[in-house]
From TrEMBL:
Full protein name: Acetyltransferase
PROSITE patterns per the UniProt record, alphabetical: GNAT (PS51186)
One Pfam family, short name: Acetyltransf_7
Origin species: Parafrankia colletiae
UniProt domain N-acetyltransferase: residue ranges: 1-162
SUPFAM superfamilies (UniProt xref): Acyl-CoA N-acyltransferases (Nat)
Keywords: Acyltransferase, Repressor, Toxin-antitoxin system, Transferase
Length: 165
């Protein structure tokens, strides 16, 4: 298995062969990802095995009400919504599950969110985990449950960045 580094989804990528075991996620990749990319709604990033998509995730921007952020954010920030990068629709093809592809995708999303944080100050990376296994997956990478949405997990990017240089 020779996997590529994550890169942006293009019109040339074959989304039809991808299958993660969740028909709704497979359908989103096939029918919406390229349109959303073109319209700049989300950016989708893929890891390839040859010319086959082994895994993907999309990034979007968003905001959450201050009450749903970790407690240390509530005490030091104004009441305005807190901006975040949203890691959405992360999935791994069934032929590549259990081989670290998901971890590579999360790391890549975190690095891209850290780049945005340095440029515009976005303090959080969020991820929707609609199943207990997904919640455990994100917890493994330091994400914490939000106080408002039971499916939303949050990673304070300051924690992901490590100590200041």
């Amino acid at each position: 298995m020779s996997l590529t580094k994550p890169s942006a989804l293009t019109e040339n990528h074959d989304t039809v062969a991808f299958g993660c075991g969740d028909p709704a996620v497979d359908s989103w990749l096939r029918h919406h990802a390229k349109d959303h990319q073109q319209e700049r709604i989300t950016n989708t990033f893929v890891i390839l095995d040859g010319s086959t998509i082994a895994g993907f995730y999309c990034l979007a921007t968003g905001a959450i009400e201050r009450v749903s952020t970790p407690s240390r954010w509530r005490s030091r920030r104004p009441a305005d919504p807190v901006p975040l990068m949203l890691l959405g629709r992360l999935a791994v093809d069934v032929r590549h599950q259990g081989r670290g592809v998901g971890a590579r995708l999360v790391r890549d999303a975190t690095m891209r969110a850290l780049t945005v944080r340095r440029m515009v100050g976005t303090p959080l990376l969020g991820a929707h985990a609609v199943a207990p296994a997904g919640q455990a997956f994100y917890r493994h990478f330091g994400f914490r449950p939000s106080a408002v949405d039971p499916w939303l997990t949050l990673l304070p990017l300051q924690n992901a960045a490590g100590p200041p240089a």
